[in-house]
Amino acid sequence: MKLFTLGPVQMYPYTLEKSAEQIPYFRTPEFSEVVLENEKMIKEIAYAQEGSKTVFLTASGTGAMEATIMNCLGRDDSVLVIDGGSFGHRFAQLCERHEIPHQVLKLPFGEALTREHLKEYEDTPFTALLVNIHETSTGQLYPMELLSDFCVKKNMLFIVDAISSFLADPFYFSKYSVDVVIFSSQKALALAPGLSIVLLSERIYEQRVKKKKCVSMYFDFDSHIENGKRGQTPFTPAVGVLLQLNDRLKHIVNQGIEDCVHFAAELAGDFRRKIEGLSVELPSYPLSNACTPLVFPDNNAKKVYENLKYNYGLVLTPNGGELADKVLRVGHLGCHTLEENDVLVKALKEVL
Ligand SMILES: *Cc1c(COP(=O)(O)O)cnc(C)c1O
After folding, report:
1. 332 Cα to the center of ligand 1, angstroms
2. Alpha carbon 239 to chain centroid distance?
3. Distance from C-alpha of 262 to C-alpha of 202, rounded to nearest angstrom
4. Which of 133, 236, 286, 305 is most solvent-facing, going by the fewest CB within 10 Å?
5. Residue 109 φ then ψ, to 5°
6. Atom of ligand 1 nearest to the CA of 186
7. Which one of 140, 164, 219, 319 would you pick to mutate in the ligand 1 pocket, going by the greatest count of ligand atoms within 8 A of its CB?
8. Which residue, among 134, 157, 155, 154, has the nearest Cα to 144 in the 3D structure?
9. What is the pLDDT of residues 275-318, one digit of tens each?
10. pLDDT band per the 50, 70, 90 thresholds, residue 44
């Protein structure tokens, strides 16, 4: 079975080896060292400035999205949410549930987010922007620079879910004046699910996190940051995943983050070239290197998915809802090679 999914994804052999080891007791100086190293390496590869804070949450990505809202936003805020698919929609639902005043920029499937969309909101006062920089449900990569400029100009907090984009697309925390970025273990980090990482700017930490009383005890960033100073978490973390993370980050730092992203672009580009001529279409909006969304003009996406899974052992990522018969996503995250693209393209040709 080969996974061309978006999470969990095909893990690296060294991660699989790590995951077979006994989980150690964690209130120890040795484990603290691992956590502090993780923090240092995460900041390094995200290009985050001194003074930024890291929170390791034992939760899936949605937990980290919700925790971010609970720790950083309140009823006095006015938030703009980019809703171009199911993950953007989730941010809107979270604002709804936590009673955060917000407006939704709804992007229909197939439409690229541009300067024109933002123009409409130029004169509306907002305090924060919530965006999933790669909207995983459609594969659209939003323009980071444009959104960053918009937030800087309007003095808004820039809150980015980069869960499915980090390591696949270029990302610069400080350069783009990001206030919060969220990562998760099961996407490009290619680890077991269960761990999410939230990186906070000094500004949002000082202005929001420190001043605001979080209604959740488990998700209180302040207590995570306090405990984090000595390399610990307030409660039992996903110890095994933090150890896998340490090992994986060392490989990434060794390889170099630029190189990592470059290879992701090469993998995605190679696949996209190889499918030219097949009876599938690609959307016209900008794509993340993490994923190639295939649009099936004959509405046979679901059938193709099942055929590839059961007859070839190749698992693609199906879409739900309205796009279930129309779209199938090919994930390029995790341990993949160019040769595997050949195998997948050959199978796709046969199935179509
Ligand atoms: C996967 C993903 C999430 C997290 O989903 P969980 O199922 O909660 O882990 C959040 N945002 C984006 C953009 C994602 O791709």
Report:
1. 16
2. 21
3. 29
4. 236
5. -60, 130
6. 9
7. 164
8. 134
9. 999 999 999 999 999 999 999 999 999 999 999 999 999 999 99
10. very high
Cite the DSSP H helix spans in 47-81: 61-72
Give the residue whose CA is nearest to atom 12 of ligand 1. 163
Ligand 1 atom having least distance to the Cα of 65: 10
List the residue whose alpha carbon is closest to atom 10 of ligand 1: 61
The atom number, within ligand 1, closest to the CA of 162 reads 13
Ligand 1 atom having least distance to the Cα of 134: 13
Ligand 1 pocket, CB under 6 A: 7, 60-62, 87, 132, 136, 161, 163-164, 184, 187
Q: What is the pLDDT of residues 218-259, one digit of tens each?
A: 999 999 999 999 999 999 999 999 999 999 999 999 999 999
**Per-residue exposure over 255-282, b if at least 16 CB sit within 10 Å of its own CB, e if not:** eebeebbebbeebbeebeebbeeeebee
- Atom 4 of ligand 1: nearest residue by CA position: 61
Q: Give the residue, out of 161, 189, 191, 197, with the most ligand 1 atoms within 8 A of its beta carbon, to mutate for a pocket test.
A: 161
From the alpha carbon of 135, which atom of ligand 1 is closest?
A: 13
What is the arithmetic mean of pLDDT over 155-170? 98
CA atoms within 13 A on the CB side of 49: 11
Using the atom order of ligand 1, give the atom closest to the CA of residue 196. 9
Q: Which residues are CB-neighbours of 82 under 8 A, at least 6 positions away?
A: 88, 91, 105, 107, 113, 129, 130, 131, 132, 135, 142, 147
**Per-residue pLDDT tens for 92-149?**
999 999 999 999 999 999 999 999 999 999 999 999 999 999 999 999 999 999 999 9
The DSSP line for 105-155 is EE--TTPPP-HHHHHTTTTS--SEEEEESEETTTTEEP-HHHHHHHHHHTT
Q: Which two tokens stand for residue 139?
A: 């594969």
The set of residues, in sequence order, having a beta carbon less than 8 Å from that of 279 and lying 6+ positions away, is: 297, 298, 352
Q: In angstroms, what CA-CA distances link 325 with 52, 80, 98, 296, 304? A: 43, 31, 34, 8, 9
Query: Model-level pTM greater than 0.85?
Result: yes
